[in-house]
Specification:
mainly beta, 25 strands, 5 helices, five-stranded mixed β-barrel, three-stranded antiparallel beta sheet, single chain
Length: about 500
């Protein structure tokens, strides 16, 4: 049954019988999201998708299908690995996404109808009915998605950043925009995966890996989004902004192809919320050719002499595994191809048979966020975890604002052998990975393995100190005493 649902799995809302579609822009606020949790069909994914449920702005309400469940929620989905962790949004962040506006055919949310003659027989498809009959009255509630985007801008408000290149520059309240533009969309953005096959046999035979035919029209139009400025402090002049490299990451921090698009920034000072209109100029040539993407962080705000922010550093030095979430029965057990008996290798099966399946999955995929900024954990030790393991990590967040934290983990079923393989090469083509697993319960750090620590650093305001000293000297001069005398201390010097 799954083969029907992935043939193709994603179809454009406009001209759904074709692969190519014009990119569509949608913006809104992130209601919820998750990183790699497994569960996506392995023959069309190398990794599972980052899923962002976005409450759309009113002008984009017509992009939400009736099958979406809520009238103003649409999902942005982009495969882990293609979509770097530093560009993932946090809960409550604003986001702009430009990319493929599609129906998700892999989740039809079907309501059964009835067969044309034997009306008491429920059906969804014609084959559900006796020969010669058709299915009538069935309904498919396909959801619409931006899947995948080829450009995203995550707007993080209430942050802090240095707006000057000077080493002595003090952080001030700022809005941060993390921007990622790339033509690589994973399986959902590849022509081979998206091409309809005339038969289920053809779907089984097609081999699209490694992916080599991206369909994203990254140079069809520029990518424009709005960055609201923080409240203007008294006495501030013009807004300031800087473009920085992405935060340190285990994922990509540079564009494929090496031609980074230029940015155009316009000030929009009218209205109650001054802002910047930012355009990633994907249609303008760079170094003799069209740009291949963009990766960067824009920070914007106002010069504020009196700003005093707290620097909080969060460091994860290890993961303590309380529960390895190992299933008693593997989701995809290893069995002989015909006898269906348990096996470890082909030698355990009768002559002429093969050992299919994945067997126990011992690896984890895990990620964590501080103040909405995500990091994926890595290392060979995550390929096999057990209860009580302490897995060393070295991950740090530097935040200049009050922080919240969120963590998630999931065992990684079929992560090593099933995803990124066509059904013709998948050992168990009708088996799908396990659903997302619950995260391990939080536990106080053990003495020998501290999982995380935070350290507040208070920025002193040198301007205030200098002004206070000047006032003290002036008072001392008027009273005719030294600043250290008892009399001067009595008059408040």
């Amino acid at each position: 049954d799954m083969l029907v649902l992935i043939n193709p799995e994603w179809a454009p809302i406009v001209n759904g019988q074709t692969v190519d579609s014009d990119p569509v822009l949608v913006s809104g606020t992130v209601e919820s999201m998750h990183g790699q949790t497994s569960g996506d069909f392995p023959s069309t994914h190398l990794f599972s998708d980052v899923v962002m449920d976005v409450r759309v702005d009113p002008e984009h309400a017509n992009k939400v299908a009736t099958g979406n469940g809520e009238p103003d929620i649409i999902a942005f989905e982009w495969e882990v690995g293609a979509f770097p962790e530093w560009a993932w949004p946090g809960f409550g962040d604003r986001i702009y996404g430009l990319g493929r506006h599609i129906f998700d055919c892999g989740h039809p949310d079907a309501t059964a109808g009835h067969c044309s003659v034997t009306t008491a027989t429920a059906c969804v498809l014609d084959p559900d009915c006796p020969a010669g009959e058709t299915c009538e009255g069935e309904h498919f509630g396909y959801s619409s998605e931006i899947h995948p985007p080829h450009a995203t801008a995550v707007i993080r408000q209430g942050r802090g950043a240095a707006l000057s290149k000077k080493a002595s520059a003090k952080p001030v309240p700022a809005t941060i925009a993390d921007v990622w533009v790339s033509g690589f969309g994973g399986g959902a953005g590849d022509r081979c995966v998206l091409t309809h096959q005339q038969s289920e046999a053809g779907q089984l035979a097609i081999d699209c890996w490694p992916l080599a035919e991206p369909v994203a029209k990254i140079n069809a139009k520029d990518f424009t989004f709005t960055v609201p400025l923080p409240p203007k402090p008294a006495g501030a002049g013009k807004p300031r902004w800087r473009v920085l490299p992405p935060p340190p990451s285990n994922d990509a921090t540079a564009v494929n192809g090496g031609r980074t698009a230029r940015l155009k920034v316009k000030k929009r000072m009218q209205g109650s919320t001054p802002s910047l209109e930012v355009t990633v100029k994907m249609t303008k040539k760079v170094k003799g050719g069209l740009p291949t993407g963009f990766a960067g962080r824009l920070v914007a705000g106002w010069n504020d002499k009196h700003a005093s922010l707290t620097h909080v550093r969060v460091t994860v030095s290890a993961i303590l595994v309380e529960n390895d979430l190992m299933r008693a029965t593997p989701v995809v057990p290893r069995t002989c191809s015909t006898a269906d008996t348990p096996c470890a290798t082909d030698g355990d099966c009768p002559a002429g048979e093969s050992c299919f399946g994945e067997g126990p999955v011992e690896g984890w995929a895990a990620q964590s966020a501080a103040n909405g900024e995500w990091r994926r954990f890595n290392g060979a030790a995550l390929d096999r975890v057990g209860d009580g393991d302490v897995i060393a990590q070295s991950t740090t967040w530097d935040e200049r604002t009050s922080v919240s934290s969120r963590a998630s983990s999931a065992s990684a079923p079929a992560r090593r052998t099933l995803p990124g393989r066509s059904t013709s090469r998948t050992q168990a083509p009708t088996s799908v990975p396990a659903p997302a697993r619950r995260p391990t319960r939080p536990r106080a750090p053990a003495a020998k393995a501290v999982a995380a620590r935070s350290r507040p650093i208070r920025y002193a305001s040198s301007t205030r100190i200098v002004r206070a000293a000047r006032r003290a000297r002036r008072r001392a001069g008027r009273s005719g005493c030294g600043t250290r005398s008892r009399r001067c201390r009595r008059v408040g010097a």
